[in-house]
Amino acid sequence: MSILETHEISYRYNSRQERPSVKEVSISIGEGRRTAILGANGAGKSTLFYHFNGVFKPQSGEVLYRGVPLDYSKDALRELRSEVCVVVQNPDEQIFSSTVEEDVAFGPLNLGLSRDEVEERITDALDMVGMTAFRSRPSTQLSYGQRKRVSLAGALAVNPKVMILDEPTAGLDPQMSQEVMELIDQLCFTGTSVIVSTHDVDLAYAWADDVDVLRLGRLVYSGMPEGFFRDPVQTAFAGLCRPHSFSLNSYMMQIRGQDEIPYPKTNSQLLARMMSGSVEPGVVRIVPVAEGSVPSKADGQTSGAYGFAAKKAMRDSEINPDYVFDAVEMCMIDAVKGIDTVLYCDASIAEPVAERVRSLGTYGISPKVIL
Questions:
Q1: For the whole model, what pTM was predicted?
Q2: How far apart are CA 310 and CA 293, in angstroms?
Q3: Which CATH superfamily is domain 2-237 in?
């Protein structure tokens, strides 16, 4: 089921443009799906994003939300933007309040929420992005990465149904990039439809359920990621390159004389294909952590923490997990190598995380999952 659709939309910023920024673009965004919009600089990704929440109105064609064409009246757009949030690449284009707290409060206040509800949303959003300690800090005193987190918190505070992020990891260091993607992943687990534009094909390939590829304002591909990257000419024509895991799997299977399918997207999946039948897989014990609970220490075993509640509970309990960043993937890699691990995980997403671990069986190694 589609939550957002565009039907043959075209848009030109001014009459002096040699070509439209987007031209006759028709895409469908599945509800609850992870969608990546790919393309080189100038492909039209940002312009397309601004059509999703009504900032731009197409000069031809139409945009639909939940099957209904957008209404561009002031009241209708306010309602739309309470459900469809865009986080732009440059946080300075989104942060305009004097303090962090005021900026995050802007969206909830515009929804007419009570002050108590607004306070709760500010607290939750800042906690999610690790900016609680900066709540009263002037926005001008934040680093680029901190401002990026605040702009994301402002969108999270609205509790959107659709989150749209333009180059969310651009300009961030590797650990902060991983934190942002983990946050996005949790939104997906809880039912939010997430759309991301990125130049990072490795990130997009590992993360996305669907990709839409733009070239010079036109849609050149829409579908599963492996369908696009399977064609090297098509990939190069769009100004992109093939993901590392895709290429390595292709070369390895050619050497072995085996089918490339199923295509591994992550390091754990690729490792499972390479080591299939050569090792006894490890056990991943998933410990659900509810908000406010106190987890017990995993004595003698490698451990990881995944999720807002799990990480906070472990900090409060002064338990230091071995894996704080990309913990699910790291525990899966250990399982492929035959190492047992304990994964502390938010109770609300424990089952989908367990399914992700079990999915390694598709690639030849099936770790035992205890939940």
A1: 0.93
A2: 9
A3: P-loop containing nucleotide triphosphate hydrolases (3.40.50.300)
